Amino acid sequence: MARTTQMRLVELMVLKQDIRKIIEFLGKKGIFQFETNTAESGEETKVDNTDLEIFRKLQAVRAYLNVPDHDENLLDSSLPADADYAAAGDLLSLVDDFQAHELKKTEEAKRLQNAYKEACAFSNLKASYSELEHLSFLSLRIGKIDPAIFDELKAGIGSKAVVVQLGTDKSRILAAASRKGRFALDTELKKYGFVNMEIPKDFKGIPEEVLQELKKQSESAGKIAAAAAVERKNFAETHQAVLLDLLGKFSIGMQVNQAECRLESTKLVYRITGWIPAYASRSMMKDLDQLSEGRIAIRQYLPSEVPAVVSGHEKVPVELKHGKIIGSFERMIFSYGSPLYGNVDPTPFVAVFFTILFGLMFGDAGQGLVFFLVGVLMALNVIKVKGWNKFAPVFMCIGVSSMIMGLLTGEFFANESILRPFERWVTGLFGTPRDQILAMMPQSNPESIRRMFLFFGFSLIIGLIINSTGIIINLINQFSKKKKGNALFGLTGLSGAIFFWYVIVMIIRIAAFHHKIAVYDWIILAVSLIATAAGEQLSRLVDRETPVFENGKGEAIMGIVVSALETVMTYMSNTVSFLRVGAFALAHAVLDYIILLMMNLAGGIGAVVIWLIGNLIVVVLEGMIVSIQAIRLQYYEFFSKFFNENGQEFEPFKFHYGDVA
């Protein structure tokens, strides 16, 4: 069985003059994981991350110019050189000038538009304001209010004053009251949020020619603002390439600075330690030597030569190396936990088991074709879903699996008649032609019921295979780590495996060959069950750990009794749990049947609508549910057999586009 990738610890002694290009090389390679601990002694280098400040300013420029962001591929970018710092400064200065110029135009346009709007509001005031204001018996107020309360204000003032609406939007008014009533008028206006406006004393309304001139200036200002927007767009297109190039370079620069700050160093030399895969160590060391022109000291260590690893204080990072198809299932492993270094790599098993389980529970050739096509389009980047395109092979695998199961059940987008000729041709090769190779929907005839129960039995067999595979992986892991006690005894040890497998053999003998249980059967079951239940004590005895009975013999005996019951219940539940595979397969067939029944009842266009909506619901909703169930079966029934200790996932230093914490 394949194991996790072999790793090496590398120690690099780098001169200060080479440190930035060495870090750049490591970030672009993306196969070097820095050790997490920083220097405990020596002088730690402090570096001002100027590149980060420049990057953030360039990002602000990109947002202002509405330029599409960088494509996140930094392999073609490099560390910023002196010319890049100068280019960034020139671009930032140029954008500042352009932004100030545009802001000036925009504010001027806004001022002219507001002036025209205000003038229109007073266009129906024809009497001289100074003449009205100086009347001995009259007190005038002109200003703004909320248009929503104009009618309420007018009703509230009542006969205390006269309110005249200015303009058409009710937001500006003229209120007139007697001199004696001016205080009451001011009080009422204040209650309604009135804002007084300063009006020239000789104001006499707005002549028509003035209004037309202001309108003309307002329209001209709007055109100026629109022209400024076009000018900004042209400016962005002209400088887009330079801007994105600088963003890529300063993104690398700020990450190099950040990594440099964390390194152990003296005034002249930096010390870099980290893990790399063994398959890449030789070529990488050669490249580092050439890059530094021989000014670098390199040492490699096997994990067994690292004191922190031997003592258990540090875990060797785990990398799982696969092709695109198997590799797309890796996240299912790491979302549960990381295997220990040197253990069996479970990814190939996960890929096979997940694909089979999904297909068994989601059997429809048409709906499976949808998953397959989605996977193909994601692989071709026709469909782009951030963070999900790497799972394109998963979609293709479950699509193929669903299509195969759909061919067996005769389902094609919930229709059982389209594939009927194919079904009858295949079944005819082996006897009497049937409408379906595998009929999931229960029918009144006994043969249909028998086939359905056979399918449930088949799902149990799948469960036995998955459970047994998990046990075998655990045995290999424990023996390879020389933990003989854990390998021989316990629920997932050899004793537990013998108990589990012997029960299966007994059931097959009784059901298929009508054998009776013999005395030796009881002896084998009893011995294996006791060895499993007393796994903790027997493991300590084999591994020569003391004391064997940590809390006394009495408590140990009680624990063994409880463990025996737990062993029986655990293996029973682990096996019976796979009946859900048959249950979900049956539920899928029922859903397809309901869609078909509703289509027949609706007829015409209604049938087409039901067909589309029904299949969409099944693909999206049931697809998610079946995926969750397939993952759950592996997490709780498969992983639980050998995932008894978590390792550390290999997370190499690699450049990513964007800000840093």
Q: What descriptors fit this protein?
A:
661 residues; alpha+beta; 6-stranded antiparallel beta sheet; 4-stranded antiparallel beta sheet; 23 helices; 12 strands; 8% strand; extended
Brief sketch in words of this structure:
The chain has 661 residues and is α+β, with helices and mostly antiparallel strands.
Explained architecture:
There is one protein chain. By secondary structure, the chain is α+β, with helices and mostly antiparallel strands. Helix content is 60%, strand content 8%. It has 23 helices and twelve strands. It has helices spanning 19-29, 50-65, 82-121, 129-133, 150-157, 182-191, 208-261, 278-291, 307-310, 324-327, 330-334, 347-361, 365-379, 392-409, 420-428, 446-480, 484-488, 494-513, 519-533, 535-542, 553-576, 579-602, 604-638; strands at 7-15, 33-34, 43-44, 138-144, 162-166, 172-178, 195-196, 264-265, 269-277, 296-301, 317-318, 648-649. Strands 1, 2, 3, 8, 9 and 10 form a six-stranded antiparallel β-sheet that branches. It has a four-stranded antiparallel β-sheet with strand order 5-6-4-7, with helices on one face. A hairpin with a 5-residue loop joins β5 and β6 (172-178). The radius of gyration is 39 Å and the shape is extended. 31% of the residues are buried. Residues 38-45 have low confidence and may be disordered.
